[in-house]
Structure formats: structure tokens, C-alpha cells
Specification:
The chain has 149 residues and is mainly beta. Helices cover 9% and strands 55% of the residues. It has a single domain, classed as Sandwich (Jelly Rolls). It has one helix and twelve strands; from the N terminus they run H-E-E-E-E-E-E-E-E-E-E-E-E. A hairpin with a 6-residue loop joins strand 6 and strand 7. The model has no long low-confidence stretch (mean pLDDT 85).
């Protein structure tokens, strides 16, 4: 009987083990205006990809506005920024087909006019992937403005 009780207690304690947090590249835990990426370590050359994962914390949903600035270095760059959401930080789905920004023929510093808008974002993870094509060298800078909903 004692052995059976120990097995039941062990099963209950294992069932209540918390899932460990995936280590993100950055956090947003309150309304903020932040710049992510944008250092020389983030320089993209030719066909290159840059990924950034944000852990969204807080006890409220947030609204996000996202815009990309390309800091031109050389050549002609073309790229696409896509956004993904996740509950566990491992399995991601695209936020929607419309939630992407296409940057074409960058030959100077530009702030792209397209803006991604996320209303009532209630996922703990938000991932951005910027895929560059063509023969350019540039540093993408992603600006995020978040506010409490």
C-alpha cells in the first residue's frame, strides 16, 4: 500500500512540472518603443537570413506596430520580413499571410513605409525572420512600438 501511494505521489509531481522557457533574443514586458537588430553583427550579405525571437511578458494583451529600416552598406538589397507566433517558443505558425513586409531594390538608407499591426497580441513568443536576396549588403533595423491594450 505504501509503495502504491509513492507511485501516485510521483505521478502527480511529474504531471505538474512546468515547461522550461525557451531563451529568446529579447523581451517586451510593458509598453515600449524598442529597436531590435541593427548592429554590425546583424549585417546581411547577399542571400542571407536573420532571425529574432521576442518573449512577450505581462498580464495583458498588447498591440504592436512594427516597421523596418534598412541601413545601406553596398550593392542592391531586396528582402522580406515575416512574423510568426508561438505558445511554446518551439512550434511557430505564421501570424497571417498579410503580416509581412517586402523591401525592394535598397540602394540607400530607407525606412520602409509598410507597417505590421498586431492588435490584441496574446501569444508569449513573437518571431521575426528577415530573408535577404540579391547582391546587397545592409543592416536591417526593426522598430517595435507596443502599447498596453
Amino acid at each position: 500500500m505504501l509503495f502504491l501511494s509513492l507511485i501516485v505521489v510521483a505521478m502527480i509531481s511529474v504531471a505538474q512540472t512546468r515547461v522550461t522557457e525557451v531563451t529568446p533574443d529579447g523581451y517586451i514586458g510593458q509598453p515600449a518603443y524598442v529597436n531590435i537588430w541593427g548592429t554590425s553583427a546583424d549585417t546581411l550579405t547577399n542571400a542571407d537570413t536573420l532571425t529574432y525571437v521576442i518573449r512577450v511578458k505581462g498580464d495583458w494583451t498588447q498591440d504592436f506596430n512594427v516597421q523596418i529600416y534598412n541601413d545601406f552598406v553596398s550593392g542592391t538589397a531586396t528582402g522580406k520580413l515575416k512574423s510568426y507566433r508561438s505558445i511554446d517558443g518551439v512550434n511557430y505558425t505564421i501570424t497571417s499571410a498579410a503580416d509581412s513586409i517586402t523591401v525592394a531594390a535598397v540602394t540607400a538608407d530607407i525606412l520602409d513605409s509598410e507597417v505590421l499591426n498586431f492588435a490584441d497580441f496574446n501569444y508569449p513568443y513573437l518571431k521575426f525572420i528577415y530573408i535577404q536576396a540579391a547582391t546587397g549588403v545592409n543592416v536591417p533595423k526593426l522598430y517595435i512600438y507596443s502599447k498596453k491594450n
